[in-house]
Amino acid sequence: MSTQKKRLLVVDDEREMADFVANVARRIGFDAAAAETASDFAREYTSGVDIIVLDLFMPEMDGIEIIRFLAENKSRAKLILMSGVDRSILTSAEKLAAESGLNVIAALGKPFRKSELQEALTNHAVATPRYAHKTRGSLDVAALEQAIAEKEFRLVFQPQVRLHDRSWCGVEALLRWQHSLHGPISPDYFIPLAEEFGLIDRITEYVFDEALSQCRRWADLGHFPEMSVNVSARTLQDLELPEKLERQVAEYGLRAHQITIEITETSVAHDLRTSLDILTRLRIKGFVLSIDDFGTGYSSMLQLVEAPFTELKVDRAFVGSMALDSNLRSVVSASIKLAHEIGMTAVAEGVEDEATWQALADLGCDTAQGYWIAKPMDGANILDWWEDWSAPSGNHQEATNEPPLASLAAG
Predict the structure, then answer these.
(1) Do 238 and 203 share a domain, yes or no?
(2) Are 116 and 90 in contact (CB under 8 A)?
């Protein structure tokens, strides 16, 4: 019994490029067709198309209009975007498509290698969106309460290392929910649900207990990495938070300076007065404060210097492609300089290749994390990773299409 071929439609007004893409697709088993004009696209497109390879610069109906059409028609096709003019346009289009609910599996700047296209097409069956969506079936607050009661959550840890000497300096604690029926559930979905229904404090307490317990185990073995834990916007409104965390840290025989509390810049904006009260007391007690996802929110520079942050995390949205995009590199450079000029440490997340690592080192970034360094892992595996990382050969992770795990804080 024969298996039906996956259908691919390449949309490009350059016949040579359209034929090239279609031929590569056919060689690896696709049923491929090409559309060079808007009328061609209208004739060839059906809801049964599995992948659309789309050039953004098209006459009559450009790529953005096609993205709008696909979103309005709730297309299930996976998208590979192409552009040979300006990578910033490609980046914006990719984000637009994802925000419109479309599944973008690759964004290729022309000219690209045949191997790049083959990789995107070969991996399409297991590829996940480059930007994660927030919906997850019909899960509700009852399922979340059950998950808390039955301890379906667990923590994994992603190592952080210093760029100047490659030493291991910390980890970020990342929360996972493995649902018995639905599989892995993103924190981008369940954290807002927990905030809305008053469950976030129970989750936060669990996260800190697990993180501090792991810190204690490492300390008993002679290792003292800083532990970074994300705190949600709702938790940042609890005036008793500094005292609660101080007690938890003392119970495990640890010091506050070993704990970095990561807060998104938009969290502080919800209630600046209360946030400043809590953040200032946390700093007085010795906790390290990190402003997470810097540059992706809407806070002002004044807010950045008013709050007592000691660390600035440059978001992976800027770091991930900075080695290829001069505009993104400029944003990362400016963020690192800003952090240093106001006495903060600069941390880059989303380091997925050696070129990005080297670019960050050249810019004077202090600390980095990402798949090239290490994927998030169970606490029991961290010391084995550290032994491999610190060895002369320096075994590194290869980046994959799997997106980085979301953190505790939504967004």
Answers:
(1) yes
(2) no
